[in-house]
Structure formats: structure tokens, C-alpha cells
Amino acid sequence: TWNKSPIPLDIWDKIKGICASTFADHKSECMVRIFYSEKLDSWEAQVHPQEMNGMTVDDEFDQELLNTIDKSYRQCGTVHHHCSTGAFASGTDEKDETNSIGLHITLGHINKDDWDLHYRFRTPSNLQDPARCRASRGEAPADRWQDLAGGWSG
Asked: H-helix or E-strand containing 114?
């Protein structure tokens, strides 16, 4: 199981706000990269440059942006949304996550009070069974994915 700190509510709220904003303003997906520092036992979330086009998003890693946080942070996952459709791992998501170890969260039904939440955890050797649940806009679902991490050490 994950024995480190969960993603704090202020970071989760930041992520949800970014997703809600991109849907409201652009009717498009967005990608948020999540980072964890074992040294600081702390989380960060960043939006790197991206092209949004409806149900697709291409983001580009930005080293200069990464340099704005402590060097001990490393990327450990992503969060993106599927606009007004349900949350699931699309074929594109699975392909994009193949070489990205960590927690991958997809949010859905951004236009409703209760959003869908689909998450999966990729280790160096496999993708843990995906899970799907509902989470209200005010809820932090960290307790739902803590056990997915297995023995991953962060």
C-alpha cells in the first residue's frame, strides 16, 4: 500500500479547478501532471503547455516549468478529464500512459455535480486493475486509490 502522504485537498482542488475551467472555457480536455517529493513528503500539480481540441489534448513537457519546484519532485502521474462524458481509460490514454509510472486519473461528467472518477496505477511491470467510482466536486478520493499503489515506493 501507499505509505506516503495522500494528495492534499488544496492540490486536489487546484486540479479540479483547472479541469472545470478548461471545460467551461474551451469545452476541451486538459492534462495536469502530478509530482511527488519523497524528501519533502509533498505533492505538486502543474499544467505544461498543451494543445486542446475537444476530446483530445497534447501536452509538451516543459523543463523550465519543472525547474520552478524543488528538484526533489518527480512526476508520478497525470490527471485529465473527458469533458461531459464518463470517466474511463481510452485507447489513447492507455498508449500515453504506457511509459509513465504512477497514478493516472481520468475525470468525467465535468458538467454535473457528481463527477466520474477512473483511476489506474502503472508500475514498471504492469498496469494495476483500473477502478471507477463517483466523487462529488468537494470530495477528495485519495482513500479510494491509496491501495492501488501496492508496493510502489514513490
From this structure: strand 114-122
